[in-house]
Design a protein that fits this description.
Helices cover 52% and strands 12% of the residues. The protein has helices spanning 3-12, 37-43, 45-74, 79-97, 138-157, and strands at 16-20, 24-28, 122-126, 129-133. Helix 1 (3-12) crosses helix 3 (45-74). It starts with a helix and ends in a 7-residue tail after the last helix.
Length: 164
């Protein structure tokens, strides 16, 4: 069975598949998925990831084009200015869809993994919870996340880093 057939079968069963980063697939549904479906998706993970990546790229291209069109036609901007604004919208959207995940121990900084005294830490939203951060690490962490978002959005849109 092809990856697109597996994805279609999942959708027909009410199972929503999505990418988490470049190498993980998440799924959600209101009821239990059909028996064996998730196992078959796992067995074809590489092909399913590739198919989901194509769908994800289409989503991002549509998102980008819609925002550029709104800025150009409703906002009266030139196409290059509209695309520049749409790119910033896409970057902000990527950041919102890809929240931080607490990947360090409760008492470590999410950015540098250094120890955090109770009186020298800031809580930041991370997925469905929070993570701890040195206040001095915040600007560097934010810049690193913004650079990652730029790279990912450029990749998903098929743009060079110099584009737009």
């Amino acid at each position: 069975m092809s990856a697109t057939s597996l994805i279609a079968e999942a959708q027909a069963a009410g199972v929503h598949l999505s990418l988490l980063g470049r190498d993980r697939i998440t799924w959600a549904c209101e009821t239990d998925p059909p028996p064996g479906l998730i196992d078959r998706i796992r067995a074809a993970k590489g092909a399913v990831l590739a198919a989901l990546e194509v769908e994800e790229a289409k989503h991002w291209r549509t998102f980008f084009e819609e925002r550029a069109a709104i800025r150009e036609y409703d906002g009266g901007l030139t196409r290059p200015d509209a695309e520049a604004g749409a790119l910033q919208d896409a970057i902000a959207h990527w950041l919102a869809r890809n929240p931080l995940s607490p990947g360090v121990p409760e008492d470590g900084c999410i950015h540098c993994a250094g120890a955090l005294p109770v009186d020298y830490r800031v809580a930041v939203l991370a997925g469905s919870g929070h993570a701890w951060l040195h206040p001095t690490c915040m600007p560097e962490m934010n810049e690193a996340r913004l650079a990652l978002a730029r790279r990912e959005v450029h990749r998903l849109l098929g743009l060079s880093e110099a584009a737009v």
